[in-house]
Amino acid sequence: MNSPANRTFYIETFGCQMNAHDSEKVIGTLEHEGYRRVETEEDAGLILYNTCSIRDKAEQKVFHRLNEYKRMQGEGKQFAVLGCVAQQEGEKIFERAPYVSLVSGSASYRNLPQMLDRLQAGEQRITGLDDRQTDETFDTEFTARSNPHRGYITIIEGCDKFCSYCVVPYTRGKERSRTSESILAEARRMADQGYTDIQLLGQNVNSYRDPSLRMSFAEVLAAVAALPGIRRVRFTTSHPRDFTRDIVEAIDTIPAICDHVHLPVQSGSSAVLKAMQREYTREWYLERISWIKNATRDISMTTDIIVGFPGETDDDFEQTMSLLDVAGYDAVYAFAYSPRPNTPAITMEDSIPEEVKSERLQRLLTAQRERQRVSYSRHQGQIMDVMVEGYNRQRGQITGRSSQNKTVNFTTTQPILPALGSYCQVRVTATYPNSLVAEAVSVR
Ligand code: SAH
Ligand code: SF4
Ligand code: F3S
């Protein structure tokens, strides 16, 4: 049992970057409350599980893991389920897993200190599930960032778009932005601590609306990029509906804003987009792609695609395939449509058989891999800055990341390896569909 003097916790995180960053804030909050993080469930008095329910498989993983935890029930451990499955399933989790004492969705994390007090008092069924209509965001000064050079800042929480297939508006609650002052204050604190690479996060990061009405999203990007010490500003995920030209202009004129846009299209067919309630057409999306392509900088584009949405015909799917050529993506995250609870699409007819979904998925991924082989080859011979992220001693390589978010494995002739988080200039000597090989030109 967790004695007050030796409170320990173990946390496991699934899902998107928002969830990963939420966990950093949860860890910071727990540590501030006197808990110590441990690396295994065995050593922990409190086990937390930060969950994802975007597709059925992700959700099943959670219940699988909870069943595994069952064997530790008798050991006096406490269990908490956080995140999107927690919000979606709510108190039903207590029925499926009676040894769980805390269930909380992300919209309630700002109440975590109070929930932890109740947990310590031995309360059994604590919930944080009623905050989805809140205007408040989870801002905390106790964020335990896992990387000392590159860090996330959530600038907008929740989602109001209600795409017909998606759980997020139900699991993360209403869309709410932080003030630009609070974002910049956090970015400045990070810069002072030595961070050089900041990634602004939101389910739809570019739907950002400053509650203090001072700055547009593009202006926030520019303001973070202008902070002394900041060398790279990234942002994800952008929604086509709110993707404005000034974002491209900001990237084009400010070198510290990374030359990469993740712009999920979901489908290349306007009919499917309509059924998905994406509220844009193929043409609308292509116009935004053309802005990006017409920029002076080579801006890398990546996307998300759902195949096998109810009613998707062969012709609809071919229209999605044709987008791969038009857009020239550097990465495509493609998923077979997964029917989700509470969403309107779950009642739609014309569902696509699983075999067809997986056949379309395979075709798409194979085609994209070939295109990536070509698109990555444009970097052959280029000189670029990479941030050092790790070492592969076996291969004698240093692993880094380019401004476009590409993995670059490089070698150096210097006797001393460049430090983690430092930037090196490299020349690309070989290209693959998912990574670049390079040699260091000079170490700065
Ligand atoms: N807010 C972002 C996406 C967030 S979810 C946007 O609108 O673009 C991440 C990705 O998961 C989505 O882009 C979509 O491709 C995928 N996804 C969401 N719901 C899904 C479902 N029911 N089945 C399959 N994939 C899904
Ligand atoms: Fe889901 Fe659509 Fe919101 Fe993205 S915009 S999180 S896909 S509802
Ligand atoms: Fe998953 Fe929730 Fe993120 S459903 S993808 S953890 S917003």
Automatic annotation (TrEMBL):
CDD domains found in the cross-reference section: Radical_SAM
Subcellular location: Cytoplasm
Job description of the protein: Catalyzes the methylthiolation of N6-(dimethylallyl)adenosine (i(6)A), leading to the formation of 2-methylthio-N6-(dimethylallyl)adenosine (ms(2)i(6)A) at position 37 in tRNAs that read codons beginning with uridine.
Reactions performed catalytically: N(6)-dimethylallyladenosine(37) in tRNA + (sulfur carrier)-SH + AH2 + 2 S-adenosyl-L-methionine = 2-methylsulfanyl-N(6)-dimethylallyladenosine(37) in tRNA + (sulfur carrier)-H + 5'-deoxyadenosine + L-methionine + A + S-adenosyl-L-homocysteine + 2 H(+)
Record has Iron-sulfur as a keyword: yes
Keyword match tRNA processing: yes
Boundaries of every MTTase N-terminal domain copy: 7-121
PANTHER family in the record: CDK5 REGULATORY SUBUNIT-ASSOCIATED PROTEIN 1, MITOCHONDRIAL TRNA METHYLTHIOTRANSFERASE CDK5RAP1
Binding site for [4Fe-4S] cluster 2: C159, C163, C166
Subunit structure and binding partners: Monomer.
HAMAP family in the cross-refs: tRNA_metthiotr_MiaB
The protein's name in its UniProt record: tRNA-2-methylthio-N(6)-dimethylallyladenosine synthase
Binding sites annotated in the UniProt record for [4Fe-4S] cluster 1: C16, C52, C84
InterPro entries named in the record: Elp3/MiaA/NifB-like_rSAM, Methylthiotransferase, Methylthiotransferase_CS, Methylthiotransferase_N, Methylthiotransferase_N_sf, MiaB_methiolase, rSAM, rSAM_horseshoe
